[in-house]
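# nightly structure sweep
# worker-07 picked up a monomer target from the shared queue
# config: single-sequence mode, recycle default, output format = structure tokens
# input follows
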Amino acid sequence: MTETEQFDLRIEGLNVYYGRIHALNDVSMTVPEGQIVTLVGANGAGKSTLLMTLAGVLKAKSGSLTFGGQPLPDAPHRVLAGGVSLVPERRRLYANLTVRENLMMGAHLQTKMSVIREDMERMMNLFPIIRERVKQYAGTLSGGEQQMVAVARGLMSRPKLLLMDEPSLGLAPLIVRQVFETISGLKEQGITVLLAEQNAMNSLEIADYAYVLETGRVALEGTGRQLLEDERVKEAYLGIQKKSVEQ
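# output follows
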């Protein structure tokens, strides 16, 4: 293992089932350290299943998952301790807890209060709205504000890899733009991101590399720019119809 590969995520021949349903079929991909890798696909394509498997919530039937050259644990708390954090779909904050308390939940594996206070301050600097809302109950925040808190909660564990599941879901267009700007900023801080999104246009624009999932299989892959220019992606995910040739 070389130094440049030490925090790569590698997925090889992954198969996951829901009962008799083959949810992920022989999926292989790589998430290099320091990059944003995007998963594009329709609802039900397997994006969330993949992230939940990586997070240790779902169990793989077969295949190999390695992070930092070591097998990825199959229990959520061990995955988190190993440097992989999940920001789940629809935020899933504790609505009856304050913003501060939600962030504390993200730091539950950290035993030093000095480190927690330092990280809390870092989150407030990264997301200024958190400083303004820190004493509010999470359930009283707007959708965009909740998403920022969810990302901050995921970062409180100091992950090397952040898994993000549909962060733009249900948000207004202006807030969606802010969310993707935030994700781009995470890369600048050296955080690797694996992003699952139905919003193909915005997610491919910020992606170093991307995979298209269709019914549990990798159908296409390439750089974000390559997939934005791919005619199949344009028609299926960007709503751009291929121009007919005039006779």
